[in-house]
Amino acid sequence: MRLLHRLGLHDELLSRGSSHSRFVLHSVQGAILGEQDMVGAVREKMGFGYLRIKRTDLLDVLLRATTKARIPVHYGKRLTAVEDTDSGVTITFADGTTDSADILLGCDGIHSSVRTLYVDPAQTPVYSGLSGYGSIIPIAALGSSHAATASQVRGIDATLTQEGAFAAMSCTAADDELYWIFSGEVPLPEVGDTRDGWDVRRKEEVDGFKDTMLQVLEGASGDWGTTMRRIVETTDVVKFYPVFKLPPGGTWSRGRCLLLGDAAHAMPPHAGQGVSMALEDAFLAARLLKDLPLGQQQRVDEAFATYERVRRPRVDEIAKKAASNAGVRKKTGPVGLRIKEWVVWAYMWVAWAVGLKGVGVEERHLVYDIDEAEL
């Protein structure tokens, strides 16, 4: 949020999203295992916290800012070739058009064409073993009795189950809509190739999500358990998404081409820092390229090398945290679930006892400022 504030976008985003940062963990028996502010200390130090916002709202704000800055956006373009020389880069699109520039920034996601066509074709996404359902519903649709419980969601309310983790969170400034998600282990498809197999699996999962989720939540007790089931029953449409990641390492630059964000280092979303990593990449790249004599290949090479030297240690550490957080989403039995609940309860109790004002990603990661990173 601090970086978005520097772009002049903070206030408009804040007016559309939910900034509540309370985290509540419920047991399947209906008890509250722990409750904490995820960013209390960070907010006190920086003046910024978390923001949950619908993707459509975020994109709208970003595109408005892009238009205001007179930056053209071309739609329907699919990259098919990259020609890199000491003096510039020429790219070709599927429609036969071409474009040239001093450098090429690949910000095109985990399935990056810039990476697969040129920078690092050997670096391909791998399945993490986890998949998720997700949807957004209006709280009013739950009915008066369940809406009363759901309207108390401020931040994230979560429950661990034997099959994975369920969470619901406010995602609008008016707190009138809930985003819910369930993530757990799903095996690789056994039919067709990887793409066709996931198409078949996705249809199966989407068509049967209510039966699956109601079975997962069947044993959940208390008001929150009843409300979780009501949330699922009220949902008409879900998105099913297998979680992919890029293996550690890989090449982030080649010649005059540089990868940013998920194109370079896609990680599972379990640390909640994927967008932050991409923003930090962009700010550092802008810092390094500003006033750089792009006609001099050696200076470009030096800038790209500095980018990797600064970013890799931080990205690797956040990726390890995301992998660690994935553990609670894996299948377990009744005893294993009780152990997970006890461990989380003990951690949150100790944090409360010693006066910690945040849970999740460590404070030092949240207060990190890419603009102050030593080059």
TrEMBL record:
GO terms for molecular function: FAD binding; oxidoreductase activity. Residues 1-116, 251-320 form the FAD-binding domain. GO terms for biological process: secondary metabolite biosynthetic process. Keywords: FAD, Flavoprotein, Oxidoreductase. InterPro entries: FAD-bd, FAD/NAD-bd_sf, FAD_monoxygenase. Pfam families: FAD_binding_3. Coiled coil: none annotated. This is FAD-binding domain-containing protein. It comes from Purpureocillium takamizusanense.
